[in-house]
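Q: I have 494 residues here and want to know how they pack in 3D. Can you give me a structure?
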Amino acid sequence: MGWTEIGLVLILFLSAFLLRVLPHLRFRAGGADVWYYFLYIEKLKRGRKFPISMDSFLLDEKEQWYPPGFPFFLSLFPQKTLIQYHWVISPSIDLINLLILYSLVRTTTGSFIVALSAGLIYSVTPTLYTENRNLNSRSFGALLGNLTILLAIHFTETYSWESFVGTMVFGFLTLMSHKLTTQALIFFFLFFALLKGEWIYLGLIVAIFLVTFLFSLGFYYKVLLAHTDILRFWRKNLVNLRAHQVFDSPLYSNSNYQSQKFYRSGLKGVGLHLARLFAHNPFTFLIILPPLFGFPLDNYYWWGFAMLILTFLTTFFNPLLFFGEGFKYLKLAAFPLSLCFASYFFGQDNILFNGALTGTILLCTGLMFYLHYYTTVGSKEDVTTTPPDLMEIMALLVALPGERVLCFPSTISDTVAYHTRKKTLWGGHGYGFKNLEPFFPILEKPVEHFLGKYDISYLLLDKHYVEFRDFRFKEKAVELLKENGRFSLYQVHL
């Protein structure tokens, strides 16, 4: 490896890293998952017992059946370091994917230009920016899933025992870490079994499940129960996916509110989904070109094709919609598509394909800079992990005697639970999704019902989400304690 190659590779990795972390340097953007992980890790380290029990969320079962792989990984870091630099972790894991991609292409093709091009395609794929903005298990699951599939492909080509063992190890880690990637793995092995007519692929996925049950000492059975629990919940409540918990409820409907539910009917809904898929990964729509131009279709092409088929099935095929929003599978297509498209660019002398790929790379580069602008300079919202206004409200909550809080939106419940150590009316982390009804995804009973049933002491509102007057409370049912910016805290008197 010469100095020119070293320099270009360093520029590639530095650019990819900066594209993913620049918004964090201003906002320290994060999501609700961050605080759940911190609570989980605290319990894990202090109790030194597994599975852990947690009573911070009133709608969760206490014993946590959340896939433990990612929290266990996070527990390797000192708590203070994790809290201060959690925003670096997901982008850094994604860079490991990039490193594996570059190394694989460099080794198999012998060309650092092809490897560099594959890395460039991967770096500017927009979905990898949006999916790795927060501390979450998605990049971790994608890394483990990619390694599982790479080793499985190598095993079916060589029947190497080392590859088989690697497939089992990383398959086990995937199943214990990320539910959506587990679904993608199952689909990949089924797809390849049908495509090639070789039942070895079914044997591999069955072996992965058996190994996981065995080496988890049976705990994966609980993870699987929680997995099927969330699927049943969304199969029943799919019509209200991403609904506004208050304004999409028939009890509190607001004529001035335009619903933002994920699934829309008719051609408008189809158009919105296609636009969403294109925005997340424009490279998706180049998948039809290689067979049209007669390019050789290897295992990496069919891997990417399988992930895109899964994406479209979970976007447009009604019986499978509850397996997750289709665009979330696009991050799992980014690795193989980057690999095979870069190889086609240099390996096939086709002006139309090369022009389409070059244009898509430029488009994606523009999208990445737009996303950077939108989430930093152009953002009118405070997207910090914990807004200062909320921190002041939570500081007051800590000193108050009541122990139970109801938050709107529910997404701030994890933040409140971590910072105040009070119990919040929330759940959906492991097992017990059925407990969320009739509170979520929309309110099917008046708020007073939940305040009384769960003996709630305080109501915390983000006025950007819902105003106090929207609930139409009875007089003196709640009392304003503190108003700070967009947040208001009320004491309940039921």
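Q: Anything worth noting?
A: The longest helix spans residues 79-109. Strands lie at 404-408, 423-424, 458-462, 478-484, 487-492.
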